[in-house]
Amino acid sequence: MRMPKRQQCKALVEAIYIQFDASHDFEHVLRVEQNALAIAASYEDVDIETLQLAVYLHDVSDKKYAADTAALEQILKTLQLPVMQEQHVRHIIEAISFRGGNEIETQTLEAQIARDADRLDALGAIGIARAFAFGGAKGRKLYDDAEAARTEMTEDAYYGKPTATVTHFYEKLLTLQQHMCTEKGRALAKERHAFMKQFLTQLAKEREGLL
Question: Alpha-carbon distance 97 to 43, whole Å?
Answer without folding.
Answer: 23
